[in-house]
């Protein structure tokens, strides 16, 4: 990002439950890369404007978070799935801003999302049938939508230049984190440098979730999810060069 340009130098937009916190912290191992001045990884600035009027004052507050002398950015992984956000991002980010996307096997991402939801307070017990079915419908639909990556990326690239997107598979990044950060650093105009300590712990884990992943064990569910996501994966292979062999559910 050139000096004086608006907004973040880079924006991480997705996907949720795909190791974005882990990867963002690897990016920050470069001395020229940073979050905003408040130190937050996820700013969630654009979320509000689905129901709140656009505010130039709020935009000014957001852009002021990012030091133009550094490659400062915001990694809010819920942005990818929010179709009202790309047009707003176009208004705020400079033309050189980089958009970073990590994608995880969508079936595994679904299971991770449901594990996270079941670990939160207030999950109704199955014997409260109506409340429980409403919860399953709400959380299940949300978890499924979170893996519709091809449609989500299409909404973003309809508005923003495709060449500004760095789309990577979480599983491949875990195999070679150095290559992944080098790619992003180079796209930010930075000379790569060796990574220091790389945590082995995945930030997808949910420590307080139940040990048994009931969502992955339900008879037939994995097959239904594979069938549901298969067209999305095919589109990703065609348009983004996704390697299906990195996703065991689709290899």
Write the layout of secondary structure elements.
Layout: E1 10-14, H1 20-27, E2 33-34, H2 56-63, E3 71-75, H3 85-92, E4 98-103, H4 106-119, H5 129-145, H6 149-157, E5 165-169, H7 170-175, H8 177-187, H9 214-217, H10 221-240
Parallel strand pairs: 1-3, 1-4, 2-3, 4-5
Describe the structure.
With 251 residues, this protein is an alpha/beta fold. It has a single domain, classed as Rossmann fold (3-Layer(aba) Sandwich). Helix content is 42%, strand content 9%. A five-stranded parallel beta sheet has the order 2-3-1-4-5. Helix 4 runs antiparallel to helix 5 (129-145). It is globular and about 55 Å long.
Question: What would a concise description of this structure say?
Answer:
This protein is α/β, with parallel strands linked by helices and 251 residues long. It is 42% helix and 9% strand.
Notable characteristics:
5-stranded parallel β-sheet; 251 residues; Rossmann fold; alpha/beta
């Amino acid at each position: 990002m050139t000096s004086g340009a608006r907004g973040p130098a880079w924006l991480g937009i997705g996907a949720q439950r795909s190791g974005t916190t882990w990867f963002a912290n690897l990016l920050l191992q470069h001395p020229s890369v940073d979050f905003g001045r408040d130190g937050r990884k996820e700013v969630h600035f654009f979320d509000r404007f689905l129901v709140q009027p656009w505010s130039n004052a709020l935009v000014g507050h957001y852009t002021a978070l990012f030091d133009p002398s550094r490659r400062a950015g915001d990694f809010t992984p819920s942005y990818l799935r929010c179709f009202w956000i790309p047009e707003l991002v176009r208004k705020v980010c400079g033309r050189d801003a980089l958009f970073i996307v990590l994608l995880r096997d969508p079936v595994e991402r679904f299971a991770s999302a449901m594990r996270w939801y079941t670990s939160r307070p207030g999950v109704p017990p199955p014997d409260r049938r109506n409340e429980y079915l409403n919860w399953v419908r709400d959380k299940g639909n949300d978890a499924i939508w979170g893996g519709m990556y091809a449609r989500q990326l299409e909404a973003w690239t309809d508005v923003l230049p495709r060449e500004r997107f760095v789309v990577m598979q979480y599983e491949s990044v875990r195999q070679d984190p150095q290559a992944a950060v080098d790619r992003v650093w180079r796209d930010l105009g930075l000379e790569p440098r060796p990574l220091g300590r790389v945590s082995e712990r995945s930030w997808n884990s949910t420590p307080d979730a139940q040990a048994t992943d009931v969502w992955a064990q339900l008879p037939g569910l994995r097959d239904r999810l594979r069938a549901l996501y298969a067209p999305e994966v095919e589109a990703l292979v065609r348009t983004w060069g996704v390697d299906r062999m990195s996703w065991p559910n689709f290899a």
